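Researcher: Next entry in the queue.
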Amino acid sequence: MVAALVGLVGLTSLVAAAGCVADAAPKGAQGTSDAASLSAGESGVGARAASGVSAVAADRSIGLYWEPKIGARWYRISVRSRRAATRPASRSARWGRWGGAVRLPTNSRQFVVTVSGAGKRLVNGHKYQVRLQYRTGTGWRTWTTFIRTPRYTQPVAATPCGVTTTPATWEHVVWIIMENHGSAQTVGSSEAPYFNSLISRCGLASNFFAITHPSLPNYLAMTSGSTHGVVDDKLPIDHQLAVPNLFAQLGAGQWRTLAESMPGNCVARNSGDYVARHNPATYYPEVAAQCATQDQPLSGAPDLSSRFTLIVPNNKSNTHDTDVRYGDTWLASVVPQLLDSPQYRAGRTVVFITYDEDSGNEGNHIPALVLAPSVVPGTRDSTRYTLYSLLRTTEEILGVPLLANASAAPSMRSGFRL
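Model: Structure for this entry, 418 residues:
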């Protein structure tokens, strides 16, 4: 079987694998905006079309599959739109074509070519005609087939996951940190109907663990990669930590903390239902100036415009001083606002919901939900993850270096298609 991936937008480089040689870079067949994977009934996934070649649409490419022909040494591939209304004007009547042919070694049994540099997705619901030509000693011969990209479904609160493929880049990560309940107290519990509906609609890390007890060292671990020897819940005045941290990595204007019931910006003392130990940015003096403007009270619909947003419920909403049902009701009021936000609906936002620690009787086994448009609904990943994995995954998504223990923690990206 021979396979090739042909990008349709902004093609800049050709990479050959499995013993193949690329003799020329492509020159830009085109396409625009949204798409996902192959719709049923066009050519079949991996099956050979009647014309001899089949195609599969991906997020930013089209895959071609055909059987090598005896004596065929050179192949060239071109793609064109079949819907005039959406064809780029400059190529409305022409085939998009590679700048040259690709040579298949004489004894090759497999042929894989990938094109990198595609900048946009394939057209939403668009039909393409794909032409494959191969050369034998008697000249060029041609196969053609058709493929349509399915209609793109925008993620919303009702269907937040399983509606898109993994984007080339993520733009936003959101954390919600609940308190002091383990996996056995939440997963499958009748006291948490909304929480469990998110498990069925999105994904659960079913073997996820906090680092230690009590709360504060866990918040430090998840934002700096270490507990730094802290073993208590004292205020920031007692633990000013001049250490690398996620907030400093992201920098001015790139992160936001939204803390419920906090009486002002970047409050480093306890006040009513707000406690400073759940607001880790207040412990890092390096980001004090940023904290003064970016660490804000949670009020109204959460603003997710920063690359990273940490949402800190107060001690009632987070179940610290209440029960699982109380926290579930709070989540049911807040999470839909996140999922209906412009950032999430754009398909480039990941939301993590977890607990800082268990209640002390589950070995710190805590639930962790992963919500993203690319997550397959009902995913349950049994890989052993920790709060360091949460940090690592976030740093990978946002493109910053891995801090301390995050570098040795397993990433959650592959398990949840992030």
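Model: The chain has eight helices and 20 strands.
Researcher: Noted, moving on.
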